[in-house]
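Morning - 7TS inputs below, output right after.
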Amino acid sequence: MFDVTKIRNDFPILSRKVNGYPLVYFDNAATSQTPQIVIDAIVHYYSYYNANIHRGVHTLSQEATDAYEKARIKIQRHFNAKKSHEIIFTSGTTHSINLVATGVTSFLQKGDEVIVSALEHHSNIVPWQMLCERTGAILKVIPINEEGELLIDVYDNLLSKKTKLVFVNHVSNALGTINPIKEIIDKAHAVGAAVLIDGAQACPHIKPDVQELDVDFYVASAHKMCGPTGVGVLYGKSAWLNKLPPYQGGGEMIKEVTFEKTTYADLPHKFEAGTPNIAGGIAFGVALDYMNAIGFDAIATYEKELLDYGTQKLLAIEGLRIYGTSPHKTAVISFNIEGLHPYDIGTIIDKLGIAVRTGHHCAQPIMDFYKIPGTVRASFSFYNTKEEITKLAEAVQRAKNMLL
Ligand code: 7TS
């Protein structure tokens, strides 16, 4: 049974006060909070078996290596990857995307086309623009409608034999739209293009099955799904990962080094040069266990209740407009009040202990589409409550009364 009171007790930060008020944390799309069990995993690692991995014969190094590799297998199972070596530890989504965008350089030629969507976070735009600069490939963009949904019929027309890659997020960080990624992937494959899905915002709410999706690359960050910062994942099909050159050179990614020729290690180590975030990787595995124990179906059902309640409460405020109104969305409400700057609303409600993000959310093309400088974004998690949402609506109303 889903018991939010019990769940909240797992998160020490949720009992702190901010500016004299109980914290209401609605900036989950930027980073989620961390349950005690994940914090304990990090403390336990540094307290009892901190050592470098994959290199020591000594006991601590073996314990650390075992725990790190067990975490890789937990991640493999979570995403339903066929092989554990298809799971590459990275520092996060941004790192994962850059690894692929750099790696595919030699596969593209001048005049080839790559497709991105108008709903992307900058980290799923800029690395591909840099790729286009290096190769002469052309960037095409799937536009959106007023609801913040991708125009799939335009996507159909953008696809051609020239299309080599498609990269789209599973869920938009700024609006919460859930994109029809299976359809996007199948259509790309039909013209011979490979697909990278940015799952940074989906993974806190949805459990993706990379084999069922038949996706070429899927990327995510631990810190948005109850794990620590500085660790993330790149899933890639073996065939693709074997084809790509290493991203960084260094220790642990080689078979043999001489000044004449260096040969590279097999997957996954080819992409894991240097000492990784060992405690972070282990804690990521614990975070996945924690979320799976609650269950992604239960999380989705509860968060939908929060979304519906929040939408109704906020829309009751006169002059408030919500951006991102697709029926397929996660529990994110991006809004503005006529005549007010989002930053001013965010600053006032922070004084009442409520944390939201304001601004363009690293998705400036979306703000340009709506012709606004930014929004106030309240992003909910399974540990939030309707009572907190009521406080948000009251605080926003109060901010409006003060500012207008
Ligand atoms: N892709 C999406 C869809 C994101 O939402 C984010 C971070 C990233 C990529 C980058 O992830 P990172 O872990 O490498 O930084 N999004 C946000 C946000 O919405 N507010 O703060 C960070």
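Note: Residues 29-30, 92-94, 121, 123-124, 169, 173, 198, 200-201, 221, 357, 361-362 surround 7TS (CB under 6 Å).

O.
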